[in-house]
Amino acid sequence: MADIIITDDELKDPGIDDMINLQRSLQPQSDEPIAEIKTPLYFNPIFYYAVAGSVGALAVWAAFEPYFNDETDQIAIPFVSDYILFGPVAGVLGLAIGVMYGIANRNVRQAAYCGAVGLGVGLGVTVLTTVVADIVFSITSNVATSNIQVPPGGFKPDEFPIKGINFFIFMCGRGLAWAIISMGAGLGLGIALKSKQLTLNGFVGGLIGGLLGGLFFDPISRWIDFASGDASMSRCVGVLAVGLFVGLFIGIFENISKEAWFQMLKGPLAGKHFVLFKQSMRIGSAPKSDIYLFKDPDVAPLHASVKRTGRRYMIEDERSEKGVFVNGKKVEKYLLQPGDTVSIGETVLRYHEKGQGA
């Protein structure tokens, strides 16, 4: 057999690289097993939503605390006292959670959109929830203080007027009121992504987070702030607790409620989970993709889609040039099974279902 001779000019021909890349794209991806990897803490929604909520809540408290005057129980600007605090808290929490979702996906467009929707939903919904919360707190406060007897000469300067079971009722009433007010804080992300599941997660997260945050306020007010007559510490801890717990419980319920998801085994976000939270989700290099695979020239803007069929999910190649490979074989449509390895460009994803291990 004659020797194959390649000249220097042929080696320098840029078309050679194109031919090699084309040949590679036509070959099936390796079906060698890829080891499982642990999800880094910073990719866990419990962590990054809690951080986002805490930072957002502290920012609102720092911005609005100078306008509170506890001596006159009034705010120095003409606005409804409860909404001036909780409207911005809910709005900024919605903003922070939406932005953090986009940041976790390295998607600036998604961060801006989800953050804007979260801000608007938080500010808007809290107009209604503040009214309801004020009614609830007024009722519980009247119940808690109805049988308090004022001693002759009034209460001592260092004596907190509400004690025992009355204090417990008063504290629970505030917690319930804060839970109602905080409902709108977590709704924005689900609304932005048009996901009923994420909307429900945000609703429950906001409710529980607000309840726990509200329960912190009165014990601090009674045993720490009362002597000074300044409730700034109570507001700080209470608002921070709301932000922390809202983010924490949104993340917890996202983890608990997920039924199917991909874990990235190889790629720029290795270890991250991508929850399948809609009937149809897009995978591609376009920023509007639900699973955004960036910085990979082999991934098309709309490369593939994952669609729910009954209780299962099917992956479909959206006429991409490089194709979709499942367990090393090129597929057009494929009904995913737990443990399947999906290769799209240089990215490798492992499919999981609830109860099948992660």
Give the helix/strand layout:
Blueprint: H1 8-12, H2 15-26, H3 45-64, E1 68-69, E2 74-75, H4 81-104, H5 108-145, H6 164-181, H7 187-192, H8 196-225, H9 232-257, E3 260-266, E4 273-275, E5 280-284, E6 291-292, E7 304-309, E8 312-317, E9 324-326, E10 329-331, E11 333-335, E12 341-344, E13 347-353
Parallel strand pairs: 5-6
Antiparallel strand pairs: 1-2, 3-4, 3-13, 5-7, 7-8, 8-11, 9-10, 9-12, 12-13
Helix pairs in contact: 3-4, 3-9, 4-5, 5-6, 6-8, 8-9
Describe the structure.
- The protein is of the alpha+beta class and 358 residues long.
- The protein is built from 9 helices and 13 strands.
- The strands form 3 sheets. Strands 4-3-13-12-9-10 form a 6-stranded antiparallel beta sheet, with no helix packed on it. Strands 6-5-7-8-11 form a 5-stranded mixed beta sheet, with no helix packed on it. Strands 1-2 form a two-stranded antiparallel sheet.
- Helix 4 runs antiparallel to helix 5.
Which overall shape is indicated by the principal axes computed on the Cα atoms? elongated
Largest sheet: 6 strands, antiparallel
Number of strands: 13
Summarize the helix and strand pattern as letters.
HHHEEHHHHHHEEEEEEEEEEE
Share of helix, binned? 40-55%
Query: Using only CA atoms, what is the Rg?
Result: 27 Å
Low-confidence stretches are 18-30, 74-79
How would you summarize what this structure contains?
The protein has nine helices and 13 strands. The protein is α+β, with helices and mostly antiparallel strands and 358 residues long.
